[in-house]
Specification:
The chain folds into 3 domains: 2-125, no CATH class; 164-198, no CATH class; 203-373, Rossmann fold (3-Layer(aba) Sandwich). Helices cover 51% and strands 13% of the residues. It has 18 helices and 9 strands. The strands form 2 sheets. The chain has a 6-stranded mixed beta sheet with strand order 6-5-4-7-8-9. A 3-stranded antiparallel beta sheet has the order 1-3-2. The longest helix has 16 residues, at 215-230.
Length: 374
């Protein structure tokens, strides 16, 4: 009976951390725990994992919550560090998600109700200005929901380009064919004019979903889902150890269903990164299909390649020559002391038009302003 209660409380912790769990999940978790030897930690870990984790992006949260809830002293020390009211808490405990620490606070606290309210208020309150500058990786579950709501309303307007097609205009080049037709129709000499039609260029996003990208991939995929809903020519590819085209998947109206489908299609989610091989696959199989008419490419990655080599520089140069503009969005630029020391970063930098941070809402809005102005 005690085991069933503990499993139920553990499922509640995961739900507070952001996992989508209901009463049926708690019953399945209780049955799974009863079917294994609970004295063996690995068996209990994977039995609960099988019924409680339904999305690849939830694995890290589950792993941290399991270590903390089932009496891991080191993990509990890290979670308590996040609850302490000092500004450097996030740096002292980088391995524990803020969402997990917030979810664990009510479960571990055996004190008075007033103490629980004080901790919860300190962890979850954030004004709009704080939310806009909060790092995606350090957001609580409530802040993450609010950030996703803001991201879904963002618009990315790329400056339109002139095309070969023409459109009517009050002045410009004389449209001989239309002028002749209008003259026959009205019985009087009529001059019509035309000018090149302007159209926003296609937008292509290459999003890194390796383990080092963490929460950034999920928020940026929400952003790309909103772009796909509002723009006709948006193509999205995910990559870690291989390339996956999820353009059609992101056209689903429900963002949660679209992201869940992306997690099932990309089997290499939260794995290593083979950036050079994935760029080579994109250049050979997809560049001619999606990079026409002056496409703008958003490369979303930290540039940390598992096996960097000369191939990465060659493929990055080819990608740069195939598109109108290549913008590298790197979450590592959130650090003031960032230096391009990694081999992959050094190989990419000479072949990008712009290197921008992408770690909070302000950085996304700055990206939108930059593309609108150019």
């Amino acid at each position: 009976m005690k085991l069933a209660e503990n499993v139920m409380h553990f499922a509640r912790v995961l739900r507070r951390a952001g996992l989508k769990l209901g009463p049926a999940s708690m019953l399945d978790a209780t049955a799974a725990a009863a079917a294994v030897d609970v004295l063996r930690r690995d068996e209990l870990y994977w039995a609960l994992h099988a019924v409680l984790v339904t999305r690849p992006e939830d694995h890290d949260l589950y792993d941290q919550a399991f270590r903390l809830f089932w009496r891991d002293p080191f993990g509990a020390h890290q979670a308590m560090a996040l609850l302490l009211p000092h500004a450097r808490a996030a740096r002292t405990a980088p391995d524990v998600s803020r969402r997990v620490a917030e979810a664990m606070a009510p479960a571990r606290d055996k004190g008075t109700a007033t103490e629980r309210v004080d901790i919860d208020a300190a962890m979850t309150w954030a004004a709009d200005e704080v939310l806009r500058t909060r790092d995606f990786d350090q957001m609580s579950a409530d802040e993450l929901r609010r950030a996703r709501a803001v991201v879904t309303t963002m618009e990315l307007v790329v400056r339109p380009l002139p095309t070969r097609r023409g459109e009517r205009a009050p002045r410009g080049r004389v449209d001989v064919a239309r002028s002749f037709r209008e003259s026959l129709r009205s019985g009087a000499a009529t001059l019509c004019f035309r000018r090149p039609a302007r159209r926003p260029p296609p937008l292509v996003a290459l999003c890194d979903i390796s383990g080092s990208m963490g929460r950034y991939s999920e928020l940026l995929l929400t952003f790309l889902h909103a772009l796909t809903a509002h723009r006709p020519r948006v193509s999205t590819f995910l990559f870690a150890t291989r390339l996956t085209n999820v353009t059609r998947t992101l056209r689903r109206r429900d963002v949660d269903a679209a992201l869940a489908r992306c997690g099932r299609e990309a089997n290499d989610w939260a794995g290593g990164t083979r950036l050079g091989a994935c760029l080579r696959e994109f250049n050979r199989a997809w560049s001619r299909r999606v990079l026409a008419q002056g496409a703008v490419v958003l490369l979303i990655s930290d540039g940390l390649d598992r096996d960097p080599g000369p191939e990465l520089a060659v493929e990055a140069e080819r990608l740069h020559k195939s598109c109108r503009r290549l913008v590298w969005l790197n979450p590592l630029l959130r650090y003031a002391g960032f230096e391009p020391l990694a081999i992959g970063v050094k190989a990419l930098l000479p072949h990008v038009d712009e290197h921008r941070p992408v770690h909070n809402l302000d950085s996304l809005e700055a990206l939108a302003r930059s593309l609108r102005a150019r």
